[in-house]
Each structure stands twice: as structure tokens, then as C-alpha cells.
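note to self — DONT lose this again. spent like an hour looking for the file last time. sequence + predicted structure for the chain T wanted, 312 res
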Amino acid sequence: MQSGARVGRARAAGLFALGTVAFIGWPDLALAKDLDDDTPDSAAALPNLYLDLRTTYSTVPANTLSIGFSSPSLSQAFATLQQLAPAIGGPSLPALPTLSSPSSRSVGVDVPLTVDLNDRISVYSGFNASTSQSGASGWSTLAVTSWNVGLQADLYQQNGGSIPTITLQTTVTRSVPDQPLATTSLNNVVEFDDALNEDATRGLLVGVQYTRVAIDSPLARIKDNVIGYVGAYYQWPDNWKLSGRVGVQSFGGAQLLALTPIQPFTQPIVRVDLDRNDDNDNRLFGVSAQIAWTPKPAYQLTVRTPLYAVRH
């Protein structure tokens, strides 16, 4: 009964977020064009407001949790872990030599309502809905699988200096608790961006991502995930921007009682991003491709189509 109540609250929160977007965003879609010098002061004072809509297709090999670079990957990891939930508390559990999860595919939509408070700080909150297919089973019904809240902030901006821009992104993600293994994650990314020219159209990247996941049940545990990476980017005069990151992901594995159903690994990870920006560096469109060896390769393709209510 308690789990059902939490599911109701989570779904209500998702509906509330959609209602808020409908109430605030859609009546003001006329403001979605660039705000220029002729815009009234009251409109110009508004921050950027948009749905940073992300649609993701991912594949995960058997007996693996694929966390990777982004929140949609976390949602897929939660869904994989939930497949082990029926074994929790089962009378045959101590006799099981191993536990396993089948290979799976998923399509998810991440819908964070995002506010750019200024050119240094953005805050966002939303939910992820997905459908998945594993083993020989069919595709599941599309349903909300998690909600998230977070911020991204430039702790320091280079602005032509010798010290790189330092960006911090922190996201808290909570799976919808419709299974015994409900999870909460904290994902932190610190990235250094060293622009190589005055216009910051090309540069080098160095970063680290740390993910910690807590499970409601004391019978299970997901160990920490750390990614260290380097990368580079180039932006053409027409505002198309290509970025690449190559790194190493170290995952501590997942445990259920004394068993280790998901083995730890330390393997390469690669992500490539192609974005189309406007003259003020607002993203208009983006596509990302990720390959994470887990140790078998897991693939993820994400399309980003921001829906602006206010865009400066």
C-alpha cells in the first residue's frame, strides 16, 4: 500500500509538471522567437524558459547496468535493476548461484522544464517516460519511470583568460517506486573547458562524472560509477558545433544479498555530440551518440529538440 501511494505521488508530480508547462509555456509561445532591442523591458527581463526535450534509444547487453554520461542512461539502469526485483524475499533466493538480467532495448523521453537564470546558471526539473523490451518479451507500455531535478552552473568563466571555464552539473534522479527496488541517484559532473580562440569556437575538454545510487531495500546495493574523460569541440560559422569525449568508466557492480548479479567493470566510453545553436548559443537541435563498453558495448542515441517559451 505504501509503494502504491508513492507511485500515485510520483505520477501526480509528473502531471503537475505537465500542467505547469501548459499553463505557463504554451500561452506565451509567441515569445519563443529571439528577443531583440524592440522587445518590451518586461519580456526582456524574463529568463530563457523551455522544455529541453530529449528522445533516447538505447541497447544494453545481458547482465549489465549501463549508466554512462546522462540521466536517460540512469533511467535504463533502474529499469534493468527492477527486473531482479521479483527475487527479493523469495524463499529460493539463498540457493541461487547467480542472478542475471536479459539484454534489453528501450525508447525514452526525458522532459525537463529548464530555466536559464542567466548566462551562468540553469535549473531544471522533469520526468522520464520510457518503454522497453527485454529477452523474448514484447515492448512494455510507455510509462513514467523517474523524475529528476538539477542545476548547471559555470563556477568560473574563462572570458579570454588563461584559466579554463569550470562547469558543475548536479542532478538528483528518483525512479518511480512501482517495484521493490526503487532508487535515488546523485549525479555530479565537473568539466573544464579551455577555449583555444577568442570566440570560443574551438577548445579542449577535461572532466569527471561521479554517480552514486541508493536503493530503498537494504537487501540490494549499486556501487559507485566514475567516468574520467577528455575531449574537444569545434563550432562552424553557421553555428553547428561538433563535440567529442573519450574516457574510461569504472563501475563497482551491483549486489543482491551475498550475490553479485551485476559484475564490476572498468571499460572505455565514447560520446559524440552535434548541436545547432543560434547566435546567442541557445541550442536549437542536437543529436548525441554514445558507446559504453560494459564490458560488451551498450549503445545510446539521443535527439534533443528544445521547445522554447522564452528565448533570448
